[in-house]
From TrEMBL:
Record GO terms (molecular function): ATP binding; protein kinase activity
Residue ranges occupied by any Protein kinase domain in the UniProt entry: 32-389
Source superkingdom: Eukaryota
Taxonomic classification: Eukaryota, Fungi, Dikarya, Basidiomycota, Agaricomycotina
Full protein name: Protein kinase domain-containing protein
Length: 389
């Protein structure tokens, strides 16, 4: 079992590395290579600098690093560059943070080529329009705005909320993971009921609006620090302040007509390269069962094989990742099975601590003590073991 876990973990790390490489290749095509010096803008960053004023006129303010008159702050002070906020460039150069001038909200700007991803705007705006936008089952990232770049009509910028990866910070309890799984199951069913296949719903494309979790705003590029770089950020648990989880990146998603109940699409390789039906042949396939596989495989890799104590969800995952796509349950059936599993879990299990792989002896002991203190408080105050946003 341990060898199998290590193998699956190695496969997951390889998949993540390949996805990061894909992003880097895309950035290279758009922008060119990045420099190593934090005091110089990369080629990609220069694009944002060039469009600083246009974005400001459009209602979005970039950080000081991209202003026309920016000069590295550490060169005029005695502060090391490591401690300066304006050293932080983007993790992925076609995605940058900004502040919405009208209300001070922190947002994400995603630059992409419409010719490469012609359906992304359509699908994102579809789910960002009433009455779908206000539907509690909608877990698609809302599109606040779409900006067409004035000097390049093939490029557009999608404005979205500022998000974090779904597992950062780590889950504290099994009940918190149950809430996460419930939300993403409901969210994918919502997409499927509206005839949209995501086609790349792996872990990197599931994020969360973590605004409720944090005492102070976090820095969008250095997630462990406060936005103003005055110290490390502190946060609540998901039980205390439940977040909402969202599907992102509709670049290879497809929307179908209401009568097209079994559409066929040529295989397309997203971040997960393990899809059984794609290994078998290049024949067109129904993308909806493939979405079920993606989600099941994400749960297998992120929880069953990476942590202990999640055996309760293993029977569901097994049917979701079956080799034969016709034998996989649809998302209605997934949710029915999942709710049946959850009814069998007692409060003790749901309030138990999720042990994270990075916990060492000292930090793990500290987390255990603080966990039990919170747990006692939650029981006394009758706080639900499964958070509800």
């Amino acid at each position: 079992m341990l060898a199998r876990r290590r193998q699956r973990k190695a496969e997951e790390e390889a998949r993540i590395a390949e996805l990061v490489a894909q992003y880097e290749r895309s950035a290279l095509l758009l922008f060119g290579p990045r420099p190593r010096s934090p005091g110089r803008h990369s080629t990609g960053e220069l694009w944002w600098c060039k469009h600083y004023q246009w974005l400001k006129d459009s209602g979005y303010l970039l950080r000081s690093r991209y202003a026309p008159d920016w000069f590295p702050s550490w060169k005029t002070t005695n502060v090391s560059w490591v401690e300066c906020e304006d050293r932080q460039g983007p993790l992925v150069e076609q995605v940058l943070d900004a502040t919405r001038i009208s209300d001070g909200a922190f947002v994400t700007l995603k630059l992409f080529k419409k010719s490469l991803h012609p359906f992304e705007i359509e699908i994102g705006q579809f789910f960002s329009t009433e009455p779908l936008l206000s539907d509690p089952a909608n877990h698609c990232v809302p599109f606040y705005d779409v900006l067409v770049v004035p000097d390049d009509e093939d490029r557009a910028i999608i404005v979205m909320p500022l998000l974090r990866f779904f597992d950062n910070p780590p889950f504290d309890t099994f009940g918190e993971v149950v809430d996460f799984l419930r939300q993403i199951f409901v969210g994918l069913r919502f997409m499927h009921k509206h005839h949209v296949a995501h086609r790349d719903c792996l872990n990197l494309n599931i994020m969360m609006d973590a605004t409720p979790l944090f005492v102070d705003p976090y820095h969008p590029q250095d997630l462990e620090m406060k936005r103003d770089y005055t110290g490390r950020v502190s946060y609540y648990t998901r039980t205390q302040r439940p977040p909402k989880y969202l599907f992102v990146d509709f670049g290879i998603s497809r929307r179908y007509g209401p009568n097209d109940i079994a559409p066929l699409e040529d295989p397309i390789w997203g971040g997960d390269k393990t899809v059984p039906e794609f290994q078998q042949s290049n024949e067109p396939r129904n993308p909806f069962p493939t979405d079920v596989y993606y989600l099941g495989n994400m749960i297998r890799d992120s929880f069953l094989l990476a942590k202990t104590g999640f055996e309760f969800v293993e029977p569901l995952v097994k049917v979701m990742v079956q080799d034969d796509p016709e034998k996989r349950p649809n998302m209605d059936e997934v949710i029915v099975r999942f709710e049946g599993i959850i009814k069998q879990l007692n409060s003790w299990k749901l309030r138990s601590r999720v042990i994270n792989e990075h916990d060492d002896n000292i930090f793990g002991f500290y987390r255990c003590v603080t966990h039990w203190a919170r747990r006692f408080s939650f029981v006394i105050r009758r706080v639900s073991a499964i958070p509800t946003p």
